[in-house]
Amino acid sequence: MDSNKVVENIYLLVVVTLISVVQNAFFAQKVERECKNHQTHTAAFERVSCTNRNCMDAYPTFLAVMWCAGLCLSQAPAAFAGIIYLMVRQKYFAGYLGQTSQSTPGYLFGKRIIFFLFLMCIVGIFNYLLLRYYGSDYKEYVQTITGAASALLLLP
Amino acid sequence: MDSNKVVENIYLLVVVTLISVVQNAFFAQKVERECKNHQTHTAAFERVSCTNRNCMDAYPTFLAVMWCAGLCLSQAPAAFAGIIYLMVRQKYFAGYLGQTSQSTPGYLFGKRIIFFLFLMCIVGIFNYLLLRYYGSDYKEYVQTITGAASALLLLP
Amino acid sequence: MDSNKVVENIYLLVVVTLISVVQNAFFAQKVERECKNHQTHTAAFERVSCTNRNCMDAYPTFLAVMWCAGLCLSQAPAAFAGIIYLMVRQKYFAGYLGQTSQSTPGYLFGKRIIFFLFLMCIVGIFNYLLLRYYGSDYKEYVQTITGAASALLLLP
After folding, report:
1. What one-character DSSP code corresponds to residue B97?
2. Which ipTM value was assigned to this complex?
3. pLDDT at position B105
4. Which of A20, A149, A148 is nearest to B68 (CA)?
5. A118 neighbourhood in chain C, CB within 8 Å
6. Residue A68 contacts by C-beta under 8 Å, 6 or more apart in sequence?
7. Transmembrane segments in this chain: where (chains A, B, C) (predicted)?
């Protein structure tokens, strides 16, 4: 049952990863449809292609931070932050595809969520080092606080 | 020897990852050579660069799904599907670089394989939840079925 | 304490990943600032955007190889090589943004480090297979040699 113990610690992260893969496929299909409709590179194609590229550029960073946070500290808040990130990304994609006249959102998005996950990693490693050199384990407390703090991500 | 137990569960996935890295390096070298040959951005450079980008866009998605499938269910079918994906990608790259007059393949490729790996992840998580809440473990059966089903990927 | 045992084996890799994320954010901010300053796509924007893309193209490959090397063999040399890779990347980014007149560096960078990490993976898997089929474990020796060899990466 060793394998099941592994799954126990990562299954929420896997679920979020799968949802992000579905979203990637959705984005890619949008690009492909736009590409097939128009033989010439229109403004619409440029826009959808650029949006997709911005999302894809940030994707490995997001995955890496989410998995590190999930492995180092606790998976539930990390997966929750991941879900919110995916929602922000969806909104970003939709916003980018809007009217050209309106100002497009910038290159970056979801900075707050990435920062939260980043912080989780640091806290997790710090806690591990504390445990190793001083023998004091605050993981329980930290996990509770992180769980509560992740709710703050819902603020607009 | 704890580390060796970790290696036991992932070594096939690592092998596929390494092969994919070699392939990435091969693609990148093609781009670099084309880039050096021609100071101006020719059509050939555009094409090889675009192909490489399409491949790179899909790469994190592929890696994430393959590793999740390998960790959640069983590594041999996941690694096998990964190998086939790499072969499809090679063919895609070669096809893209062909004559401009012939229709280039679309933006997406290897959808079937990604879908298969995706399904493996879902089955793995579902099996874990079944085990957790009902105590019934079908992992043995599922792994056998998955191993057999992965042969279907060989169909053209 | 199972989770802490996981953290023990990966915490250096997580630290390097976090540093790489900070670097990614730094690159992305450079792109965003350039993008906002100039409404039209200037040569400077083209250059910073292209550099960022080259770095991002290689990023998943780097992450995958570093983590595989760290998991298969030993994390300290892998993390050390990762740090050096990040330094090379920083230099690449700065060099690319220099004068247009001077020759820009090529599409690829950090080949030596990727190759070193690649070799670590192969050695790790080879050692595992030796252990499995012949029962002889050279991991201790190999880890010592790898640690020493990683110092060679400091050579310019």
Report:
1. T
2. 0.82
3. 58
4. A20
5. 18, 21
6. A117, A121, C14, C17, C18
7. 6-27, 62-88, 113-131
